[in-house]
Every structure is written in structure tokens, then in C-alpha cells.
Amino acid sequence: MRKPRIYATCDIGHQALRCLFDHGYDVEVYEKADPPPKSLVLEKVASGIDALITTLRDPIDEEVFQAGQGTLKVIGQDAVGYDNIDRRAANRYRVPFTHTPDVLTDATAEFAFFILGCVSRKLYPSENLVREKKWTTWHPYLPFLGDEVSGKTVSVIGAGRIGKAFAMKCSGFDMDILCCSRRGEDRNFVASVQRLFDAKFDFGLSRRRASIRYVSLEEALRDADYVSLHVPFLPDTYHLMNDTTLAWMRPTAYLINTSRGTVVDEQALYHALKKGKIAGAALDVFEREPLPEESPLRDPDLEDRLRLFHHFASAGRQTRLSPDPSLGMAGRCVQGVIDVLEGNYGGNPAAMPYVVNKEAFQD
Ligand code: GLV
Q: Domain range spanning residue 178?
């Protein structure tokens, strides 16, 4: 019997790939770090592969599904986001595609918290000072000061899985938390976190009784020292942070984005930073990735107040590479592919946990 064939557009780690070999699949991996050209992906799909493993960098559109008509059985996306996959086309061709939710929640949330601290406490300028041999003396406030995080107010815009996990990291620093969500309020979550805050205060473990509540977007932006974005990429989150909404933020506030680049209008952010309308920002995602050389965000004048990272939030070793589907993206990605190819869950993609487009398989 012919071995099922899988093409991976990038190396997702040898342990996870080994699982596929162990299941008897014939696996080919595009070995270069950069993504394969679309023509190569089309060629592989048209050659009759059973499964395609993709990442956020691969545009998976109508053409790809057409090339795989009758042979392509599943797409396994090695990411939680799937902005690169044309869901309608997948549904028309009835190809399930999977993703890797949950396993990167904590890694992303902690990274968001770390970059918040990084920009606020000026870690990069401090290290630069030492490296550039410009550290001349200890002084109470020169050459600069940072802003403490503990006890401040943080707004969590998009209080889904990652937003809530981020809020929990902030709770460790006794921050007042303002949640903003268009999907409605999770009263249990808010009540549980408030009980935690109350207990910490009542047992003398915190000097202040922190609070958590849901507010409108405008309130969240006006009342926060830190604003952290955790919304998905959707038509109504496009440029959620724009000239108007950035102007609602305090001149002393910081913006953190680990969600999707298109949620922030980068021109508007550039002007807000340049004119001192907000204190700083830390960004892990950009409207165009990699960040173009000519991006205004590279302005040296902003260097001390603007931290830039290479879409790195989920990039913890275990999170990215563990072959265990309960721990790692790679493990969850290959399990999603195996579920479809081996007809797990009664062969019904709508019942498979990692399939995104369940609607195409529901009667
Ligand atoms: C990362 O951004 C992901 O969607 O997994």
C-alpha cells in the first residue's frame, strides 16, 4: 500500500517529524529558513501529497486547494493564527485545516508581560549604556529612569485565552486590570481573579487590594498605564489602534502588541510616539513582516521608547518544538494531521479538536 505523503513547508523540529515517520508516512521537508516559493508549494500539492504542513508565512489560497483537488486531505498549520489560509476556499474544497491553540497561550502571555517590563523599565537603553561604555557613574535619576509596573493599571484588549493568561501574569504584580472584549464578559473569570486579589490583600501578601473589571474600549485606553492587545486578526480589528484611539491613551502610557500587526496603524503609532502622545510601545508583530527597512518605526529618535521583536512571542523551546500535543505547537500540528489522515474521531473533522473549519463538515 502507498505510504501517505506529507510535504512540510518548513522544518517543525525533528521530534515531531519523527512522529510522522513512525506513523509510516513519507515526509518531505523544505529545509531552508525562508519560505518556499508559492510555485514550489503548488508543484508539491499538484504531485498528489495527502497533507501539507504550513506556517503563517505560506499563502494558502484557492490555487493551492485547486491544485490538491481529489488528493489533498488536510493542511496542518504550525501556528494558532491562520490568517494565511483562505477558509472559504478550504470549505469549498472540503479540506480540513488544523491549528495549534492553547499550547502557546502561556508563552505568548509571558512574553507580552516581559516586553511590557522591558520597555517600561528601559532595559534596552540600560544595557546599551553598559555595552557602549557610556555608563560613567551612579546617579539618582540620570541618565534616565524607568516606570515601575507593580500596582499600575493595565488594560487587556481582547480577553480571550491569551488575554486572560496575560491578565494572570499581571495579577502577580498587583496591577489593576481592565478587560475589554467584544465577545461579552466572563464573569466567572473576573470574580475568581478578584477573589485572588482580595485573598492576597487580606492575608497581608499584597500592600494594595488590586481590582479587575470589564470596561469599554475607550475607558480601557483612557484609564490605563499599559495597554496590551490580544485580539485576533479580523476585519473589525484592522487598525483598532489608530489616530483616534491612540489619542485616548495617556501621554505616560505604553502600548504592547503581541497579537497581529494589522491591529495597529503603524503610521499613527509613529506619530503618537514622535509627538510624545504616548510614552512608549513594544511590538512583536507588524503590518508587514519582516519589518521593512524603510519602516518609520526604525527612526533612531524612537529607539529608547520603542521595542521591536521578530514575531517571537510563542518562541519558547518547549512551546515551539515539543512533540507532545499537550505541550508543543509541533506536536499539536502533527497530531492534527494524523487525526485526519488516520480517520480518528470517527473520521469526522468536525469532531477533531484541532480542526479550524469544522463548519464545512457539520451536517
Ligand atoms: C503566532 O503568531 C501564531 O499564530 O501561532
A: 105-308
Does 139 share its domain with 261? yes
Residues 217 and 195 in one domain: yes
**Number of other CB atoms surrounding residue 48 within 10 Å:** 13
Q: Are residues 251 and 340 in the same domain?
A: no
Q: Read off the C-alpha cell for 289.
A: 513582516
* 11 and 160 together in one domain: no
**Cβ contacts of 66-70, under 8 Å, gap ≥ 24:** 66/93, 67/42, 68/93, 68/95, 69/93
Q: What is the pLDDT of residues 2-13, one digit of tens each?
A: 899 999 999 999
Residue whose CA is at the smallest distance from ligand 1 atom 4: 81
pTM above 0.85, yes or no: yes
pLDDT digits (tens, 9 = 90+) for 303-343: 999 999 999 999 999 999 999 999 999 999 999 999 999 99
Pocket probe mutation, ligand 1, options 104, 233, 257, 263, max atoms within 8 Å of Cβ = 104
pLDDT at 171 over 90: yes
The 3-state DSSP class for residue 241 equals: strand
Same domain, 352 and 223: no
- Å from CA of 232 to ligand 1 middle: 10
Say yes or no: CB of residue 153 within 6 Å of ligand 1: no
| Same domain membership, residue 147 and residue 73 | no
